[in-house]
Amino acid sequence: MSIQVDVVRVFTDPDGRHGNPLGIVDAAQAPAPDRQRIAAALGFSETIFVDLPTATATSATAQIFTPAAELPFAGHPTVGLAWWLRERGLGVDTLEVAAGPVATRTADGVTWVRAQPDWAPEFTLHCQPDSTAVHAVSATSFTDGHHYVWAWAGEGAISSRMFAPALGVPEDEATGAAAIRITDHLRRDLHITQGRGSRLLTRYSPDGWIEVGGRVERDRPVTV
User: Fold this and answer.
1) For residue range 160-210, what is the model confidence (pLDDT) as tens digits?
2) For a disulfide at 60, which of 53, 148, 164, 211, Cβ 3.0-4.6 Å?
3) Is 171 a residue of the active site?
4) Are residues 9 and 98 part of one domain?
């Protein structure tokens, strides 16, 4: 049986360019034992499976998979799903994922999610002298683990790339979980340009919660 997969690009720039593709699947179409296989077949850095809520519900339950593993939390899938649900007219303000409840909001065209830093994978942080050095790093430098290469690119702004070969993601175009980790590390709000030109925003709070947000664009659906 073919499964329809809606696709959005998360963390685009203000002109709708770039962003990280996300597959969104109605969980009713995909039995739980098949979800890892479907995510691997799609090949997106992450695919999210959602139990579609009723019209009056304020929360929705979802599972997140990379091509190689299930994740308890990830930034670009939760941002993308929050936007997608609102586009369908559903008033969901909380996403229930394995790590915990993810609060969501939208303001000025930006969709935000809130999470604890320890919900995200541990990243080895590689600080570089400038953006040129960030873009000079080869993805083949990393064969295991989770790596975030970054440099300052102005006041409150950084340039970055992320590599996660252990998750079946040689390089990720835009990574919300890594943005949360670097924000916690630097303890300040950030404007992040990742990969080819994707844009992420973060908000740091000393109470232990961090928000990550960005713009989302609809892409062409696929079947698998």
Assistant:
1) 999 999 888 999 999 999 999 999 999 999 999 999 999 999 999 999 999
2) 53
3) no
4) yes
pLDDT of residue 166: 85
Give the end-to-end CA distance of the chain in Å, rounded to a whole number: 9
219 found inside a domain? no
The catalytically annotated residue of 46, 171, 173, 217 is 46
pLDDT of residue 167: 87
Strand runs labelled E in the chain? 4-12, 20-26, 47-51, 59-65, 70-71, 94-97, 100-107, 110-115, 124-127, 147-152, 157-164, 169-172, 190-194, 198-204, 210-218, 222-223
Tokens 């969901």 map to which residue? Answer: 92
Does residue 224 belong to any structural domain of this protein? no
CA distances from 92 to 103, 213, 222 (A): 9, 16, 25
Q: Which residues contact 67 (CB under 8 A, 6 or more apart)?
A: 39, 40, 42, 43, 44, 45, 167, 168, 169
Q: What's the structural domain count of the chain?
A: 2
Q: Are 159 and 134 in contact (CB under 8 A)?
A: yes
Nearest-10 Cα torsion for 219, 183, 141, 145: -90
The tokens describing 223, both together, are: 């079947």
Q: Which two tokens stand for residue 177?
A: 């979980």
